[in-house]
Hints:
Elements lengths: L1 H23 L13 H11 L1 H4 L34 H10 L1 H7 L17 H13 L3 H18 L2
Helix pairs in contact: 1-7, 2-6, 4-5, 4-6
The structure holds heme C.
The site of heme C (HEC) has 23 residues, from helix 3 and helix 4.
Amino acid sequence: MRKYLIISVIVLAAAGAGGWLLSTAGAQTETVPENVDIAQGEKLYGEFCASCHGADLEGQPDWRSPGPDGILPAPPHDVTGHTWHHPDRVLFNYTKLGGEATLALQGVEFESGMPGFGDQLSDAEIWNIIAYIKSTWPERQRAVQAERSAAQRQQEGN
Ligand code: HEC
């Protein structure tokens, strides 16, 4: 049983990676572009994200517990957080539109401490930051995240 589980995870991860490669060809706004600039992403992360998410992507202390205002602190973007659980579309929307607008798209009402950066960063710059964040994850987290991104794209038919 366990063996089958492991095999199917590997197959899914491979399919995810393949889907990612294929879907980058069409270069849509919300699909990871073919050419990402990780160095620029790292620089922009330092300028726009590190103040809340931490210089080493470590997040804010006690990030799982809401503060006195009921708003959650900034979570880490490293493996200890849940950024790698989310498909590309969610990471992109969260950064471009902010937490509130992104969750509203999913019909969820939520007061979020995550601002939108759509008026400060271009789509390409946002993808570069996301690429930088991903580049810090170990292989396993990258594979899981690639697979979830592919699954979501398939579900949405692009
Ligand atoms: C003013 C503080 C602040 C800044 C600056 C900020 N964030 Fe956030 N971010 C938050 C908070 C607080 C949350 C958690 C609340 C929520 O989930 O809505 C969050 C959540 C997120 C999430 C969703 C949760 C997750 O783990 O995936 C992403 C993605 C994200 N931020 C990316 C970024 C990126 C990229 C930048 C820089 C361009 C950035 N943030 C800058 C405060 C901030």
